[in-house]
Amino acid sequence: MSVTSLFLASIFAVAAAGPAFQTFVVQESLSGAPAGFAKVAPAAASSSLNLRIALPSNDVAGLEKALLDVSTPSSSNYGNHLSKAEVNAFLAPSDEAVAAVQAWLASHGLVANTSSSAGDWLSVNVPVSKANDMLSANYQTFKHIASGKTYARTLSFSLPTEVADFVDHIHPTTTFNSPLSLSPVLSVPKPVAEVSEEVSSDATAASCATTITPIPLQDPTTAATESSNSIAKFRTNMASSTTFKTQLLDGGKNSQGASTAGVEANLDIQYTVGIATGVPVFFVSVGESFQDGDLEGFLDIVNFLSDEDDVPQVMSTSYGENETDMSKALAFKLCTAYAAFGARGTSVLFASGDGGVEGGQSQTCTKYQAAFPAGCPFLTAVGSVHGTSPETASTFSSGGFSNYWGAPDYQSDAVAAYLKAQGTTNNGLFNVSGRGYPDVAAQGENVQIVSGGTTEGVDGTSCSTPIFASVVALLNDQLIAAGNAPLGFLNPWLYANPSMLNDVTTGSNPGCGAKGFAAKAGWDPVTGLGTPDFTKMKAAAGL
C-alpha cells in the first residue's frame, strides 16, 4: 500500500471511530458584540460560510530568529534573505496537525482545500447549520451600525479535544472586522484647482509647508533603473509612457474612468509612481467578494503574495483595523505572515491609523486603543506629520503601544527612553510593556492628488505610507544596481540608525478624553523615529 493510501486510511479510520470528537473545549468567547455592532437574528441555517482554518506553524520562533538574523545590520547574515521554500519550512504545519484536522472534517463529510503555499491555512465551505454543529457555535447575524453591512458571527466557538491543539484559529468566528477601512479623507471640502493649474504651479520644496506634491518630495529626481526592483501598490516631468500593473483580487476592479478609481487608488499610485519614478509598481485592487471570511482581504493578499516565487521588495498598505476588532490568535497568525515576507526580503509598511490614541479609526474610549496591523513588530508602521521647519506631528497620527505584542529588542531602548521622558503622564491609559508604534512618519496633510480632472487635498497616514514606501523603493533600486540585497524588514536597520531620519519634536495625538502622546526628541508614539532624509539613508545603507 502506498504512503498516500496509508495516510488516507488513517484519516478515515479515525473518522469512523464513533466516540471521537465528542468532547469540546472552548477556543474563544466574547461576552457580547464589540461596540458598533448589533445582533439582528440567528444566521440562516442554509447560508454558506467559507471557514478559514489556521494550523500552527511548526517553527514560528525559528522564523522570527531567521528574520532578525537577515535584517539586523550587525549580523553576518544581514541581507541573506530566505527563499520561499526555506520560509515555508518554518510555516508548514506538522503532519500530525494536518491528519487530525482532516480527520475531524472527514467525520462531518468534509474535505478542506489548502489555501496557502506553506499549507498552514485550510479552507472549507459549510452551511451555517453544520458550522454550528462542528464548532459547538451559535452563529448570529450582526449588523455594523455605521455602514449597515451584516455578517454571520458567533460569540464563542469550541473544538473537539482531539483537534484543539492543532488549530490556531478559525475565521469567521469571533472576529468582528469594521467594514470602514482606513482611508485618506479630503482636507478641503471641494477640489482646489483644475489639473492645468496644478501642472503650472511652483513645485518647490517650500511648497511642502502648505501643500504636498510628488515633485518636492522626490529626491533624487533621477528615475530608478533596476527592473527587478518592485513595489506592490502626478508628476509633470515624467515620461508620458509611465505606467503600472494591476492585480485583481476578490472581485477587485481595474477602474479607469476619471472619477471611478477613487481617492485611495489615485493617492497610492500617484505617490508611488511619482516619487519612486522608474520602479515597477503593482497595484493590488481588492474587491468586496472576500474569500477570507470578510477579513477585508488581509489574509487573501498574504496568501496570494506568499505563493509568488518572487515577492515584491516593498509592500505598502494604507488600511487597517483597531486591534480589539481582531482575535489575538488571528492577529498573531497574520503577523507571522508579515515576518515571512520580511525574511524573504520584503519591506512591509502599513499606515499606523488615523485615530490618534483611539486606534486605527476614531472611536469612543476611556483607555488608549491600539491599531492592527500597525502593532505587529515585524512590519514598519508609518505615522503622519505636516509643515516644515519644523515638521509637526499630525493630531490624527495613530500611535501608542500594542496590547498583543511586547516591545521587541530592536526598539526596547528607544521605547524605554520615551517612557522615562514622559514620566507619569497618561499612566494607566496604555500598556507600558507593549510594542510601540509608529516606527517612522512622513507628510500626511493636504497631500495633493488628481482625481476626476481636478486636484484635491487629502489627509491621513494613508498618504504617509506610500510616500515612505517610495523612499525605500528608491534605496532598493540603488542597492540592487550596486549588486546588493534590498533592505527587507526595515526596523532593526531603522532603530540602529535613528540619525538618518528627521526627528519630530512638536505636536501630539490626543484622544479618549486625554492629551495623548507628545512628540519628543528620539522615538515617540506619534511620529516614530521621524521622517526620511534620503541622503542620510543612502549613507546608512552603504551607498
Task: Give structural notes.
The chain has 543 residues and is of the alpha+beta class. Helix content is 28%, strand content 21%. It folds into two domains: 7-57 and 92-171, no CATH class; 202-540, Rossmann fold, CATH 3.40.50.200. Helix 1 packs across helix 4 (95-106), helix 2 (60-71) crosses helix 11 (328-343) and helix 9 runs parallel beside helix 13. It starts with a helix and ends with a helix. Mean pLDDT is 83; it is low at 1-19, 183-207 and 230-235. Secreted tripeptidyl-peptidase which degrades proteins at acidic pHs and is involved in virulence. The active site is at 264 (charge relay system), 268 (charge relay system), 462 (charge relay system). Its EC number is 3.4.14.10. It is an enzyme of class 3 (hydrolase).
Reconstruct the topology from this structure.
Blueprint: H1 3-15, E1 24-29, E2 37-42, E3 48-54, H2 60-71, H3 84-91, H4 95-106, E4 113-114, E5 121-127, H5 128-134, E6 140-144, E7 150-153, E8 156-160, H6 161-164, E9 169-171, E10 185-186, E11 193-194, H7 195-199, H8 214-217, E12 231-232, E13 245-249, H9 263-275, E14 281-286, H10 298-306, E15 314-317, E16 321-322, H11 328-343, E17 347-351, E18 371-372, E19 380-386, E20 392-393, E21 400-406, H12 409-422, E22 434-437, E23 440-443, E24 447-451, E25 454-459, H13 461-481, H14 491-496, E26 501-502, E27 531-532, H15 534-540
Parallel strand pairs: 12-14, 12-15, 13-14, 15-17, 17-19, 19-23
Antiparallel strand pairs: 1-8, 2-6, 3-5, 3-9, 4-5, 6-7, 10-25, 11-25, 16-18, 19-20, 21-22, 24-25, 26-27
Subcellular location: Secreted, Extracellular space
Domain Peptidase S53: 186-543
Pfam families: Peptidase_S8 (PF00082), Pro-kuma_activ (PF09286)
